[in-house]
């Protein structure tokens, strides 16, 4: 079968499309899904470049998000049957450790992600355990079904669970345009928050206003903390969504209102940050880490997808053979929304 693979780490130029063996449902809980679409995430760029502690076996198939039709199942599979339309939860847990048994699968002792630790979705088929497979809502396109899972699960856990955003609160999101940031915008509005976003692109800020952002700030031209303080009468915001890390951390903390929360799911500019603990304890600030989410949260966001309440923002759709170009577009930062691979084409 055709797949987008790595045989070494580097830039997008090391990515190739080649034939690899088609997976089979050899284990009792295995499900093989014939994929119709897959979606890129920033994670794919990190995997291409090489992640500390991650040593994939080459050739390694990229891709965390995907949707398609069940092709084959193992003898213990009861959740789905061949022919079912499904989408995938990219996180794979053991189902046996104390965290899994407590319903916190993303804290699993052996938690792994498709495309990072396991063969991924940029292929004509993928093998996953049955608990990673969910029915795709019938009126949702393959493009939207593939583009939805990872970023919306991540943003839902960050905002609804970890930061517990309440109606009327102010939420600031750094770097609008990427999948998680756009999912966070939609979810924050759904939760009743007033949303402020930043970007270095005025065009992206204009798009964000169309999607419901009340305040847009160009972080290349404005002193964001000062502007936020001015706009909020000196109070600050209740929640900052920061997946940037070193470049924004200190500014994020300066924008927090008393009792404010900073929630992070990444560190795209670096992992080492400085925190003034005095300000943190004096103003009762809370720093929250968040990765993916659990099965209950995944089911919750899928209900919102099926109801049409949440839908992904899609930048563009290209054939599987053009995956390298899609990765290059993501690396350039030119995209606004999800980049999707049309595998059926």
How does this structure look, described?
- The chain has helices spanning 42-49, 98-101, 142-147, 149-162, 179-190, 202-210, 224-231, 249-255, 277-282, 295-307, 323-332, and strands at residues 2-6, 16-19, 30-39, 60-61, 65-73, 85-88, 91-92, 112-113, 125-129, 133-135, 170-173, 194-199, 215-218, 237-241, 256-264, 286-289, 314-319, 338-342.
- It is of the alpha/beta class and 345 residues long.
- The protein has two domains: 2-148 and 312-342, Medium-chain alcohol dehydrogenases, catalytic domain (Quinone Oxidoreductase, Chain A, domain 1), CATH 3.90.180; 152-289, Rossmann fold, CATH 3.40.50.
- Strands 3, 5, 6, 9, 10, 17 and 18 form a seven-stranded mixed sheet that branches. Strands 13-12-11-14-15-16 form a six-stranded parallel sheet, with helices on both faces. Strands 2-1-4 form a three-stranded antiparallel sheet, with no helix packed on it.
- α9 links the parallel β15 (256-264) and β16.
- α4 crosses α5, α4 crosses α10 and α7 (224-231) packs parallel to α8.
- It is globular.
- The two termini are 14 Å apart.
Defining traits:
seven-stranded mixed beta sheet, Rossmann fold, 345 residues, Quinone Oxidoreductase, Chain A, domain 1, alpha/beta, globular, six-stranded parallel beta sheet
Main sheet record: 7 strands, mixed
CATH superfamily of the largest domain: Medium-chain alcohol dehydrogenases, catalytic domain
| Quaternary | single chain
- Beta-strand percentage? 25-35%
Number of helices: 11
Proportion in helices: 25-40%
C-alpha geometry: globular
Distance between the termini: 14 Å
Query: Which runs of at least 5 residues are low in confidence (pLDDT < 50)?
Result: none
The helix/strand order is EEEHEEEEHEEEHHEHEHEHEHEHEHEHE
Count of domain modules = 2
Give the rounded overall mean pLDDT. Answer: 95
Radius of gyration: 20 Å
CATH-defined topology of the largest domain: Quinone Oxidoreductase, Chain A, domain 1
CATH class of the largest domain: Alpha Beta
CATH architecture of the largest domain: Alpha-Beta Complex
The counted number of beta strands is 18
**Sheet/helix structural class:** alpha/beta
């Amino acid at each position: 079968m055709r797949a987008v693979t790595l045989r070494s780490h580097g830039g997008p130029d090391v990515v190739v499309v080649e034939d690899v063996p088609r997976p089979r449902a050899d284990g009792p809980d295995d499900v093989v899904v014939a994929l119709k679409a897959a979606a890129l995430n920033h994670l794919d760029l990190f995997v291409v470049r090489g992640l500390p502690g991650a040593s994939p076996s080459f050739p390694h198939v990229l891709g965390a998000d995907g949707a398609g039709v069940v092709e084959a199942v193992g003898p213990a599979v009861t959740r789905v049957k061949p022919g079912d339309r499904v989408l995938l939860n990219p996180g794979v847990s053991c189902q046996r450790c104390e965290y899994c048994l407590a319903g916190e699968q993303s804290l699993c002792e052996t938690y792994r992600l498709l495309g990072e630790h396991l063969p991924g979705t940029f292929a004509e088929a993928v093998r996953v355990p049955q608990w990673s497979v969910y029915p795709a809502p019938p009126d949702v396109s393959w493009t939207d079904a593939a583009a939805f899972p990872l970023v919306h699960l991540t943003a839902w856990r960050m905002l609804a669970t970890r930061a517990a955003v309440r109606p009327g609160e102010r939420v600031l999101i750094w770097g609008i345009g990427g999948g998680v940031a756009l999912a966070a915008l939609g979810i924050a509005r759904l939760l009743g928050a007033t949303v402020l976003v930043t970007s270095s692109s005025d065009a992206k800020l204009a798009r964000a206003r169309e999607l419901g952002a009340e305040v847009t700030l160009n972080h290349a031209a404005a002193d964001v903390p000062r502007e936020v303080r001015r706009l909020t009468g000196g109070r600050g915001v209740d929640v900052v969504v920061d997946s940037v890390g070193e470049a924004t951390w200190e500014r994020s903390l300066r924008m927090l209102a008393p009792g404010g929360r900073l929630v992070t799911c990444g560190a795209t500019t670096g992992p080492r940050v400085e925190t003034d603990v005095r300000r943190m304890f004096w103003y009762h600030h809370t720093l929250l880490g968040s990765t993916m989410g659990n099965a209950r949260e995944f089911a919750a966001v899928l209900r919102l997808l099926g109801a049409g309440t949440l839908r992904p923002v899609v930048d563009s759709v290209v054939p599987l053979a053009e995956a390298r170009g899609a990765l290059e577009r993501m690396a350039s930062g030119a995209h606004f929304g999800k980049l999707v691979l049309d595998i059926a084409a």
